[in-house]
Amino acid sequence: MSLHSFIRKPFHYEFRNCALILIGINFLVFIINRLMPVTVNYLALTPRWLLQYGMFWQVFTYQFVHDQFSLSHIISNMIGLFFFGVSVERRVGSKEFLLLYLLSGTLCGILSLAIYILTGTVDVHLMGASGAIFAILLAYAVLYPDSVIYLWAIIPIPAPILVLGYAAIETFFLVTGTSQGVAHGTHLIGFAVAWAYFVVRFGINPVKVWFRRR
User: Fold this and answer.
1) Per-position b or e across 28-49, b if 16+ CB within 10 A of its CB
2) 8 A C-beta contact, residue 104 and residue 88
3) What DSSP letter does each residue of 150-207 carry, written as one string?
4) CB 18: neighbour CB atoms within 10 A?
5) In whole angstroms, how large is the CA radius of gyration of the chain?
6) What is the mean pLDDT of each run of 10 residues along the chain (214 residues)?
7) CB under 8 Å to 8, separation ≥6 — which residues?
């Protein structure tokens, strides 16, 4: 089997509500972090500690850690995972969904780490599922290009336009340095990883999917 055939080989379809399981895991980790705050030091991505103590697992575990002092962080992320993740999982199957979600989150961690090291920002604490969820949002817009999402439950926005709008906003915040304390770069990496995933894994260019229909 060639490398191309291996990469494109589809999984056997099955639906096991993995999005809901991931939501449960995130809340479980949140409770553990709330009860034992020291666990955040081991699970969140902190470049200095990762390099100094070899905590390389942090590029994976950070995506399950949320601010233990604020419910809004985890709730907003889990709402996104519920509304978009379940639909994506139903369309592509649980195995494909898990691969996309976990690979996106991990690559977001690795690439964010590389940027932090290159820029000397080694004392930052990266946490949250946002990178992976941004990847799932892009996947949703590719799989359901005619879907309309109601922003704040009021404003109807086509899914592809929402993705492009978020990308523009995140880029603006990243370039101008406004809204600090939010990992805008990681969000953009999530979009980029999902984009590359569809091109490499499925041979689908999201832009062609979106604008061919316009």
Assistant:
1) ebbebbeeeeebbebbbbbbeb
2) no
3) EETTTEEEEHHHHHHHHHHHHHHHHHHT-STTS-HHHHHHHHHHHHHHIIIII---HH
4) 19
5) 17
6) 80 96 97 95 95 96 92 92 96 98 97 94 93 96 92 84 89 77 87 96 92 66
7) 201, 202, 203
The residues that bridge with 122 in the sheet, in sequence order, are none
Q: What is the pTM of this model?
A: 0.93
- Other beta carbons within 10 angstroms of residue 126's beta carbon come to 24
The torsion defined by the Cα of 109, 166, 92 and 30, in degrees rounded to 10, comes to: 50
Helix (H) or strand (E) holding 148: strand 148-151
Token pair recorded at residue 98: 């898990």
82: left (phi over 0), alpha (psi -120 to 50) or beta: alpha
Q: Give the pLDDT score at 1.
A: 64
What is the pLDDT, as a whole number, of residue 182? 75
pLDDT of 213 reads 54
Residues contacting residue 71 through CB under 8 Å, at least 6 positions apart: none
